[in-house]
Amino acid sequence: GLFITAFSYEILNILTHGKFVAAAPLLPIWFLLLFWSAFGTTYWQYLAFHKKTVFLAYSGICITLFFIGVNAASVFYLGIIGAAVVVISSNFVVQLSRRIYAKKLGCDPVAEKEFLTAVLLLLGIYGITLFFEPDFYSRLLLFVVGSFVFVAYFGLATAVRNNSQLIMEQFGAWKRKIP
Q1: Confidence at residue 149, expressed as pLDDT on a 0 to 100 scale
Q2: At the N or C end, where does the chain have fewer CB atoms within 10 A?
Q3: Distances in whole angstroms, Cα of residue 110 to Cα of each of 6, 43, 95, 114
Q4: What is the pLDDT of residues 55-109, one digit of tens each?
Q5: Cα 76 from chain centre
Q6: Phi/psi at 178 (nearest 5 deg)?
Q7: How far apart are CA 125 and CA 28, in angstroms?
Q8: Phi, psi torsion values for 109, nearest 5 degrees
Q9: Alpha carbon 70 to chain centroid distance?
Q10: From CA 86, how far away is CA 151, in angstroms rounded?
């Protein structure tokens, strides 16, 4: 996500041979849509398992119908970026309503701190790249610093190191068993 947010122009330039680079500001928004949908999947599955499909249907339909009107206004005033922001906002509200109802029914929260941190980090880098339009090396620095912050904040380096040691120990034990 950080890579897509920092280098959306370059990604589209490579993939489309420069034909659709004007859509570069939309690529991080698309990623946020996927990210929020993935976050809401657990709560959607919990509600479906508990046969709350009527709520799932109404939460999707009612919120989407409301946001169609908001989308029309945002396209008029803000253009395509406004429409994309309204679409991800609509998805976020749908996922949030499902999360609230699932938690009310007893579903345990799933990685909410991590999700919020990742979203804030992505939105920060997206805002910097959208409004300040930094050059390639500045975006590279943003990507490296953002990645470092994410890894350091969640202690992922320690987890990777511990898992690597465990894998190597298991591999060594497996290797010794070969006749």
Answers
A1: 84
A2: C
A3: 27, 9, 13, 9
A4: 999 999 999 899 998 998 898 898 888 899 899 899 999 999 999 999 999 988 8
A5: 27
A6: -70, 125
A7: 10
A8: -65, 145
A9: 23
A10: 30
